[in-house]
């Protein structure tokens, strides 16, 4: 059973502060509606950027759907939150995103979906499509957010 974190890396043409802000404040703009409880009802997503803050998907019918809880914030360098999206709520995983400055104002963004254990590893195979979502973030960052 593979318990290694799913890892994806991107380079975006903006400084870490802008990349971090787009991740946190712009998630409702770049999140793919297909990865919500009801794609037709998707109305956005929210990350409350403080320890204990909620990560929510907004749905027309269901309202605010809890996705996770922020466990670490080191703006504009790192954000960590739990995740129960598409998996058993009793065995959450962890999303970690780091924003590393590059020369000439670019940012190296490293995304890791980890926290896999014997209790939640069966769900890991469902998350092979992260690039479909993360590509939207990178494209929006390339357009200036």
TrEMBL record:
Source domain of life: Bacteria
Limits of the Activator of Hsp90 ATPase homologue 1/2-like C-terminal domain: 15-140
Any one Pfam family match given in the protein's UniProt record, by short name: AHSA1
Family: Belongs to the AHA1 family.
Protein name as annotated: Activator of Hsp90 ATPase homologue 1/2-like C-terminal domain-containing protein
Organism: Cellulomonas biazotea
């Amino acid at each position: 059973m593979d318990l290694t974190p799913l890892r994806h890396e991107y380079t975006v043409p903006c400084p870490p502060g802008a990349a971090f802000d787009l991740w946190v404040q712009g998630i409702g703009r770049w999140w793919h509606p297909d990865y919500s409880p009801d794609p037709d009802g998707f109305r956005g997503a929210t990350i409350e950027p403080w320890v204990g803050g909620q990560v929510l998907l907004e749905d027309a019918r269901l309202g605010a759907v809890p996705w996770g809880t922020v466990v670490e914030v080191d703006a504009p360098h790192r954000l960590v939150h739990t995740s129960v999206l598409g998996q058993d709520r009793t065995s959450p995983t962890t999303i970690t995103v780091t924003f590393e400055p590059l020369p000439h104002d670019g940012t190296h963004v490293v995304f890791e979906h980890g926290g896999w254990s014997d209790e939640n590893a069966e769900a890991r195979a469902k998350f092979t499509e992260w690039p479909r979502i993360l590509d939207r973030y990178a494209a929006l960052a390339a357009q200036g957010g």
